[in-house]
């Protein structure tokens, strides 16, 4: 005796296609929303510590510093609002303009030598060796703090007891007052910071070099291009985004130089190495003129913002020849 299959039984009917499609669409629309909400809360949890640190140690001090720049404040009495008096004094302050010129001189020397040397080291590492040991040697000076690096070179370049001047004296050059001279002061400070930071900058460029496709260089070799031509026609144009990032980072850091100057020269002789950050420090913690020091800080912030925006636009750092 034959029996009907469950599919052919009139009592068991398959759900209509419209109902199944509606349930499937509803499940597809509700699941991503729940995932997005969960991902949003998870993201907020992860960025909360950094956001709190940013607000407490950067955003709030910046807002308070801008407010104090319109006041007279010496830590002992409450701030007194004085309007634009600090900025009027800033325009007429010859020491400020001298410190700005000294800082620009340092930035030009530091950026010029550091970028060229870092690019050379990065290309050599990329073309000749990719050894982790070599990268460690290149990065080693960057692991030394600014204060320790300044103390080391202060001892090496000391006019009387420094081993560097001992060598110069032994070969007949004579002793050079590197950190006591108004001529050699800023170049020497720039050299110290280039020695410390060039490895880090080289590794940033090296990472950019590793991202470049090898097929572009193979095409250049097929066309008969030399290594020098490929460097200028291929490597440099394709590295524009990473070079722009490196320049922005190094320029901002160079304008904020302080540790090396404070350890080696303290701004002397005769304000020859008195960079803006050192001048701000002396105004705030030496003369207790926190209102005027805040005005100088705001002026430096404006200068850095303008330089960064102009450099970003001129270098077209958001574009790449690989696109």
What is this entry, summarized?
The chain is built from 13 helices and 2 strands, in the order αββαααααααααααα. The protein has helices spanning 17-68, 85-91, 94-128, 132-139, 146-156, 163-170, 185-210, 214-222, 227-238, 240-255, 259-264, 276-286, 290-315; strands at 71-72, 80-81.
Provide an overview of this structure.
The structure is a single chain. With 323 residues, this protein is mainly alpha-helical. It has 13 helices and two strands; from the N terminus they run H-E-E-H-H-H-H-H-H-H-H-H-H-H-H. It has a two-stranded antiparallel ribbon.
In helices, the fraction of residues equals over 70%
For the biggest sheet, the summary is: 2 strands, antiparallel
* Overall form: globular
Residue-averaged pLDDT: 86
**Model regions low in confidence, pLDDT < 50 over at least 5 residues:** 5-12
Secondary-structure element string: HEEHHHHHHHHHHHH
Please report which band the strand proportion falls in: under 5%, 5-15%, 15-25%, 25-35%, 35-45% or over 45%: under 5%
Distance between the termini: 73 Å
Whole-number radius of gyration? 30 Å
The number of E-state strands comes to 2
Query: What count of helical segments does DSSP give?
Result: 13
Which structural class best describes the helix and strand composition? mainly alpha
Sheet with the most strands: spatial strand order: 1-2
């Amino acid at each position: 005796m034959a029996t009907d299959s469950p599919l052919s039984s009139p009592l068991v009917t398959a759900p209509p296609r419209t109902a199944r499609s509606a349930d499937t669409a509803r499940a597809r629309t509700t699941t991503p929303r729940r995932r997005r909400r969960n991902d949003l809360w998870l993201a907020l949890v992860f960025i909360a510590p950094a956001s709190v640190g940013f607000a407490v140690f950067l955003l709030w001090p910046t807002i308070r510093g801008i407010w104090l720049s319109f006041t007279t404040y010496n830590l002992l009495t409450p701030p007194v609002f004085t309007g634009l008096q600090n900025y009027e004094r800033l325009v007429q302050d010859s020491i400020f303009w001298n410190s700005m010129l000294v800082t620009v001189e340092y930035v030009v020397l530091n950026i010029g030598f550091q970028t060229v040397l870092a690019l050379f080291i990065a290309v050599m590492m990329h073309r000749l060796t990719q050894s982790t040991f070599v990268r460690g040697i290149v990065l080693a000076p960057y692991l030394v703090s600014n204060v320790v690096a300044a103390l080391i070179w202060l001892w090496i370049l000391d006019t009387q007891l420094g081993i560097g001047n001992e060598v110069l004296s032994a070969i007949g050059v004579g002793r050079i007052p590197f950190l006591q001279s108004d001529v050699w002061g800023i170049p020497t400070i720039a050299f110290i910071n280039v020695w410390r930071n060039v490895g880090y900058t080289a590794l940033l460029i090296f990472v950019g070099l590793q991202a470049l496709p090898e097929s572009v260089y193979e095409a250049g070799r097929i066309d008969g291009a030399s290594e020098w031509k490929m460097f200028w026609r291929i490597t440099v144009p394709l590295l524009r985004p990473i070079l722009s990032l490196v320049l922005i980072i190094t320029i901002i850091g160079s304008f904020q130089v302080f540790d090396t100057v404070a350890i080696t020269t303290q701004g002397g002789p005769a304000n020859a190495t008195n960079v803006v950050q050192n001048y701000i420090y002396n105004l705030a913690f030496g003369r207790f003129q926190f209102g005027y020091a805040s005005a100088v800080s705001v002026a430096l912030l404006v200068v850095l913002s303008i330089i960064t925006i102009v450099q970003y636009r001129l270098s077209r750092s958001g574009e790449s020849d690989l696109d």
